[in-house]
Amino acid sequence: MANAVTCLLMAAVVLAPLFAGAAGGKLSTRFYDRKCPNLQSIVRLAMVEAVAAEPRMGASILRMFFHDCFVNGCDASILLDDTADLTGEKNAGPNANSVRGYEVIDAIKAQVEASCSATVSCADIVALAARDGVNLLGGPTWTVQLGRRDARNASQSAANSNLPSPGSSLATLITVFGNKGLSARDMTALSGAHTIGQARCTTFRDRIYNDANINGSFAALRQQTCPQASGTGGDGTLAPIDVTSPDVFDNYYYQNLMSKQGLFHSDQELFNGGSQDALVRRYSGNGAMFAADFAKAMVRMGGLMPSADTPTEVRLDCKKVN
Ligand code: HEM
Ligand SMILES: *[C@@H]1O[C@H](CO)[C@@H](O)[C@H](O)[C@H]1NC(C)=O
Ligand SMILES: *[C@@H]1O[C@H](CO)[C@@H](O)[C@H](O)[C@H]1NC(C)=O
């Protein structure tokens, strides 16, 4: 009996990696050290080129990672294209015409497959590329935990319900991040991602015309390119989220909040007389403290795992299941 059980257990251990199993398992910083030793240099070089061609790409890939992780964990579910059987996340409200950089991930994946085929998950590539994007724009670096697996499913409705909207209140932001096991402090640090990148007029129109706690000259500046009437052509016009230095990962985001120049209602909620005011003040005066907290919070966010019953695999093409 004992022998039979041992035998079964051993068979399971030996055979497990061959199957497209369920999610789970521990992440490790050395997961690909032997299996794909060139992985990190391939990703880094590709991001060097992508960010040199367009600095905003560092921001776009960072946001892609956030939107992946908040929907059933960091499992590259966001990368799946819609098919007859699958309504994916790309066309969910927070992602459609908004999340970008898919082609950068596809190009990295092709290079990684050429170097070590069927080994590295798309989810891990996004995690590494997001880290490098931040660092290449002047932000911190950190060691990325690896060993994520790619989901064989995705959920447009989960993407619509799990991601915060730019109209969110502070209480809602704390709840949405709390639902993912992230603290209010993590939330405030991670929001510092808005020190880089661009946003469409539709996402901040309400704030620049209707909010009370906004800097008047800042509102006037943004109103110049974001007309009050929607559907008149200005909806997609971009503005930098950080008015001071949109291509540099620094702590000006927090200084802007203190002068009421947060672009989204949700940004300004972090400094509007509530529980995060003190932390915003500290980050605004201490860039090193922000950078360290941001890096730690990114590792925590990157640890969000798909639910145990999620079917997973190492996808060969990030856009579709094997
Ligand atoms: C706290 C709640 C958050 C809300 C409500 C929010 C909302 C938004 C919105 C509305 C945009 C503009 C999208 C568009 O115009 O198409 C945006 C852009 C961006 N978000 Fe957030 N976000 C939040 C947190 C985060 C987090 C945690 C990260 C990453 C750690 C992040 C990274 C970014 C980046 C980098 C951009 C610019 C992307 C680009 O230029 O392509 N955001 N966010
Ligand atoms: C994928 O399927 C599993 C099992 O049914 C489920 O728990 C998970 O939430 C699904 N993924 C998404 C993104 O909803
Ligand atoms: C509004 O923003 C300007 C910079 O554009 C700044 O000099 C000023 O102090 C801000 N006003 C308030 C009330 O914070």
Structural description of this entry:
The protein has 322 residues and is mainly alpha-helical. A two-stranded antiparallel sheet has the order 1-4. The radius of gyration is 21 Å and the shape is globular.
List the helices and strands and how they pair.
Blueprint: H1 2-15, H2 39-53, H3 56-69, H4 102-115, H5 122-136, E1 150-151, H6 156-162, H7 170-178, H8 184-191, E2 198-200, H9 201-210, H10 216-223, E3 238-240, H11 252-258, H12 265-269, H13 277-285, H14 287-302, E4 312-313
Antiparallel strand pairs: 1-4, 2-3
Helix pairs in contact: 2-4, 2-5, 3-5, 8-14, 9-10, 11-13, 13-14
Note the main attributes of this structure.
globular, oxidoreductase, mainly alpha, Peroxidase, domain 1, peroxidase activity, binds 2-acetamido-2-deoxy-beta-D-glucopyranose, 2 domains, Peroxidase, domain 2, about 325 residues, iron
Q: What's the total count of β strands?
A: 4
Order of helices and strands, N to C? HHHHHEHHHEHHEHHHHE
How much helical structure, as a percent, in the residues?
40-55%
Choose one word for the global shape: globular
* Tally of alpha and pi helices: 14
Structural class: mainly alpha
Bound molecules: protoporphyrin IX containing FE, 2-acetamido-2-deoxy-beta-D-glucopyranose
